[in-house]
Design a protein that fits this description.
The complex is a heterodimer of chains A (110) and B (114). Chain A has 110 residues and is an all-beta fold. Chain A is 0% helix and 59% strand. Chain B has 114 residues and is mainly β. In chain B, 0% of the residues lie in helices and 49% in strands. In chain B, the strands form two sheets. In chain B, strands 2, 4, 5, 6, 9, 10 and 11 form a seven-stranded mixed sheet that branches. Chain B has a four-stranded antiparallel sheet with strand order 1-3-8-7, with no helix packed on it. The mean pLDDT of chain B is 93. Classes of the chains: A mainly beta (110), B mainly beta (114). Chains A and B meet through strand 4, strand 5, strand 9 and strand 10 of A and strand 5 and strand 10 of B.
Chain lengths: 110, 114
């Protein structure tokens, strides 16, 4: 089955700086890659997603890039704010199933 | 639009007891998922329903876990008997139709097995 690896596991940045989280996947059949933000005591919330026919997608301060050849995709958050502090998960969808990374705990220091 | 509802939010039981979780997906969503999220890890799929049929339950420990989706809407997940290693957050998610559609998660049920 699919194997999704996510790095780093923890990330601290100063407010206003950028944050980058990277994921790799193993199954070349994976065709949908969502990113979720999970705050303490809540379920994951979709923040951005990308499909395999697109290389990059941007939504305000958040962007995702996908390199199908290398089988990796990344989340970029610019101008970070304290409210961006949370755990972020990447996921890959292969053959109708979702496989999640192990999560990145992002702390934005005011 | 109302989100995915789950209850209870928290449950504490002793090992070997049984427990049940309930999920009400977003209205009109045909696909429903149950995930197990152990502390510090990403969600792991337990079972996926399409309407009231099971699409994938390959990672469901069927000797102790069971799930059903009543009339293709609400769903219950049961553990009997519970083990210490079942302590986790159980997340329910739903999507409109296809597996590649956006999944919407509920708040989860935090289970502690003593």
């Amino acid at each position: 089955g699919e194997n999704v690896e996510q790095h780093p596991s923890t990330l601290s940045v100063q407010e206003g700086d950028s944050a980058v989280i990277k994921c790799t996947y193993s199954d070349s059949a994976s065709n949908y890659f969502p990113w979720y933000k999970q705050e303490l005591g809540k379920g994951p919330q979709l923040i951005i997603d990308i499909r395999s026919n697109v290389g990059e997608k941007k939504d305000q301060r958040i962007a995702v890039t996908l390199n199908k050849t290398a089988k990796h995709f990344s989340l970029h958050i610019t101008e970070t704010q304290p409210e961006d502090s949370a755990v972020y998960f990447c996921a890959a969808s292969s053959k109708g199933q979702f496989y999640f990374g192990t999560g990145t705990s992002l702390t934005v220091i005011p | 639009e109302a989100g995915v509802a789950q209850s209870p939010r928290y449950k504490i039981i002793e090992k070997r007891q049984s427990v049940a979780f309930w999920c009400n997906p977003i209205s009109g969503h045909a696909t429903l998922y149950w995930y197990q999220q152990i502390l510090g890890q990403g969600p792991k799929l337990l079972i996926q329903f399409q309407n009231n049929g099971v699409v994938d339950d390959s990672q469901l420990p069927k000797d102790r876990f069971s799930a059903e989706r009543l009339k293709g809407v609400d769903s219950t997940l049961k553990i009997q008997p519970a083990k210490l290693e079942d302590s986790a957050v159980y997340l329910c998610a739903s999507s409109l139709v296809l597996a590649s559609d956006t999944q919407y998660f509920g708040p989860g049920t935090r289970l502690t097995v003593l």
